[in-house]
Amino acid sequence: MKYAITGLVSAIVGGLIVGIVGFYSLPGLMMLEDESAHDFETTIEVLEQELDNAGWSVLTVHDMQETLEGHGHDVMSVKIYELCSSKYSAEILQLDDERIVSPMMPCRVAIYEKSNGNTYIARMDSELLAKPFGGVINEVMQSAASEIEDVLVKLIK
Prior knowledge:
By secondary structure, the chain is of the alpha+beta class. It has one domain (32-152): TATA-Binding Protein (2-Layer Sandwich). It contains six helices and five strands. The protein has helices spanning 2-30, 40-54, 64-69, 86-93, 126-130, 135-152; strands at residues 31-35, 57-63, 78-84, 107-113, 119-124. The protein has a five-stranded antiparallel beta sheet. A hairpin with a 5-residue loop joins β4 and β5. α2 (40-54) crosses α6. It is extended.
């Protein structure tokens, strides 16, 4: 009986520790950030050209610096790109059960400057986020994420 209680307490404490570590580690796992090899403007130019070469559409660009300036806030340069590849979007959106991931669409990539003067590229780790869904969602998101990474690797230091 003593060993059973010790084992149960150990399992509970171990589970709590894993839960706490997991909770605080998740943001770092879900988001990817890399330093650009270029300044902000060059990063923007190269990104747009490489996306076009790869067949991706830029649906819109959110200039957060400009938007926030209009509300009286002063932030450094931040542009968020909403990207779409119709071949991937159609695979997911044509299926009823897969549409549940549509709030994660389109793919987004952010380009921003930090106070150290360097430019960074951030995005969700779509490959990691896709795995729990399995099936078509996982396959499509893995492929889309891989294509985006192929574009971004040309920009990363």
